[in-house]
Amino acid sequence: MPVTTPADPGTATPGPADLGRLLDSFRLLMLNHSRVLDHQGDLFGLGDTDIRFLFYVWATGDLVTPKRAADHLDLSSGAMTNLVDRLVDAGHLDRRRNPDDRRSVIVSRTPRGVEVTTAIASAYAAAFAEVVPASQHDAFADTLIDLGRAFDRHGVGTAAAPAAA
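^ thats the sequence. predicted structure below, dont judge the formating
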């Protein structure tokens, strides 16, 4: 069951300019996103990182080296090797020699990997189509890209906030 209300409704003041409400709404979005990933992962026998990797492979046009994917996913080379091996063994990815570098390989989705990513993407597409009018898709996509970049600027490599007393 999706989570649609704040954990403590008394802490959020309604209103479009309220940053607290925006943060709480984002927290709820992330919680529901996590629930979707867990559910879809259970359906296909995949973990969150497996799904993130399959979608990254898709985003690259099904031609990515494990090193590039490891950098994107912030994984060690050993963790990436295990991830590639597991998804190849499960039939979601193919691995072949990199024609530009014989020391490297290229991974791409198999028909099963395409089926899985398409099924998962359709759950998200249906939710976006239900809530975001088509006339606002480009503007909303730009906002999400800008938000992701702002997260990188403010959340990656910055000092952790002090713990509350």
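Strands lie at 93-98, 101-109.
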